[in-house]
Amino acid sequence: MRALFSMALVAVAASVGACSSQTPAPAPVQTSAAPVITEAPAGSNAEDTTFGTDLMQLQQQAIQLARLAPTRSSNSDLVALANTVATGQQSESDTVKVLLVQWNDGASPSAAPGTAAPGALDPATVGRLESLHGQEFDTLWLQSMLGLHRAVIDLAQTEIAGGRNVDAQTLAKSILATRQAQVQQMQQMVG
């Protein structure tokens, strides 16, 4: 048994020695997607700030409406769209929060109290949605979500045209593509 063990050690030592004389393999090429938040300076202008604060309000309303759909709609396509909206906008909202903190030098972002973003739903519409079910809910939900999406598209276009922050510009372009596709889907569902 000792002889076999000794022979095994000799074989391992020989193979390690042979490996060390070979040319080392090249280092793997690293690839990564560009982060949403870059390491670039957090410079911003008034367009960026308006984009961020108004977008946050509209996203929070869209998320609130999306969470109503599973218990109020019997349309599986609408519920699936609502889940997509909630997930996507929550992720975007997290990014916007980081940007707003950067632009405010660490201060907590907040809009002026009582100031609604252009295109935001009034409390009466939100309250009505919370009380509806079935087809009535679906119709008002689609109309309301279309309004929110169109408002966000306007915000994104304004940011692209006049914003300064690279991360906000990148987010606006991404949002523009996503919302336009969802608007088309909702328009087809409204029929």
Textual characterization of the structure:
- By secondary structure, this protein is mainly alpha-helical.
- The protein has a domain at 46-105 and 133-190: Up-down Bundle (Ferritin), CATH 1.20.1260.10.
- The protein contains six helices and no strands.
- The protein has helices at residues 2-20, 46-72, 76-103, 123-131, 134-162, 166-190.
- Helix 2 runs antiparallel to helix 3 (76-103) and helix 5 packs antiparallel against helix 6 (166-190).
- It is elongated, with a radius of gyration of 26 Å.
- The termini are far apart.
- Mean pLDDT is 81; it is low at 1-35.
- InterPro entries: DUF305_CopM-like, Ferritin-like.
- Residues 1-18 form the signal peptide.
- Residues 48-189 form the DUF305 domain.
- Keywords: Signal.
Top keywords for this entry?
191 residues, mainly alpha, Ferritin, elongated, disordered N terminus
Return the CATH class of the domain at 46-105 and 133-190. Mainly Alpha
Q: How many beta-strand segments?
A: 0
Structural class: mainly alpha
Biggest sheet layout? none
The whole-number mean of residue pLDDT values reads 81
CATH superfamily of the domain at 46-105 and 133-190: Ferritin, core subunit, four-helix bundle
Evaluate the radius of gyration.
Answer: 26 Å
Beta-strand content estimate: under 5%
What is the level-2 CATH architecture name of the domain at 46-105 and 133-190?
Up-down Bundle
Oligomer classification: single chain
What is the molecular shape?
elongated
